[in-house]
Amino acid sequence: MVARPELELGLRANWKQFSLLVVVNAFVGAMVGMERSILPAIAEQEFRLVAHTAILAFIVVFGVSKAFTNYFAGRFSDTCGRKIVLVIGWLIATPVPFLLMWAPSWNWILLANVFLGVSQGLTWSTTVIMKIDLAGPNNRGTALGINEFAGYFAAGAAALATGWIASEVGLRPQPFYLGVAFVLIGLLLSVMVVRETRDYARLEAARTPSQGAAAMPSQSSIFWQTSVRDPNLSSLSQAGLVNNLNDGMAWGLFPVVFAGAGMTLAQIGTLAAIYPTVWGLCQLFTGALSDRIGRKGLIVAGMCVQALGIAIIAIASQFSWYAVGAVLLGLGTAMVYPTLLAAIGDAVSPAWRASTVGVYRFWRDLGYAVGAMLSGLVADQYGVASAVWLVAGITFLSGMFVAVRMRSGTQARKRSRK
Q1: What are the transmembrane regions (predicted)?
Q2: pTM for the full predicted model
Q3: What whole-number distance in Å separates Cα of residue 235 and Cα of residue 402?
């Protein structure tokens, strides 16, 4: 089935629907951002958790549930359509803020993060896929830079807001009132205004005969190509995993590091917001930059900048230096995050692109769980500083792996849209 003839690929032709999806993804990002500055404090102050592995368990369950949901969300988007997956994701998010507000034990917090991970896997994956559909091949990096800007800028703003509210009126329930609004608005927009975009992917496939005519590979074939066999796809997958490995560590341990240095709750909220805010803002430029200068160099450089930022936080003891490290970590992540997704889009047929994105996002978001477990175990055995240094080293080595294994290729932007 070929898409309707009135459809047209490109950001300019689809700016209204694209802008709507940017707004929707901002609410998706805000849902995860509301936890970033205060959940470790809730674990220590309300539930009296001491071991870092126990505190970071919420990131483990979030990462695992999101990773596996990503895997299936991509395939469901290819077979069932994008919009239905997006709406289901918002419905699953509905109980999250209420569980966080009133959880009587830490296990209820973990349950909330299972729901949050599944919801994020469905909603964020789908907004990514829908923007790729609308943008076409010429502006893929730009589109994903805008998408990730919206999500992570909103995450930073939500972290700042909940940190401020917690410092003024307490850790619970007031900071999570914001989550109720995020869910309600995101769900209503997705049900009432968002349109299906799968026909745009079919149109792009039809305009590339060698891709459009090929039969869709099996899910197992897509999984192994993306994970191991294809040097480009597997390099991107491991870089994505390590990127979220260091984000999982930052999410769980940085508030502990800052508190140990005597930072106030408001200062911790500010520092927790700097990293995703810089990450979000800079993606407005780095995504478009990858369309012009290529993907590989930006990924390698970004992983190295991330490692430097983490190392600075490991040795710092003052707010100003923590802020410098957070800025560098955000900048490096902005160089990497939309570029990885754009490179995935370059490498595969539009007909099964959503399935490939799902596999990539499976590995990427499994990094949350790996990072939380690894950094928690090392922190308990050897101290928090050792865990932070270990993650800095892993991040640097991941960049070197991309430099050696990934092949530089011609960007999809060089292909004609007609």
Answers
A1: 20-43, 49-72, 84-102, 108-129, 149-170, 176-194, 248-266, 297-316, 322-345, 388-408
A2: 0.79
A3: 6
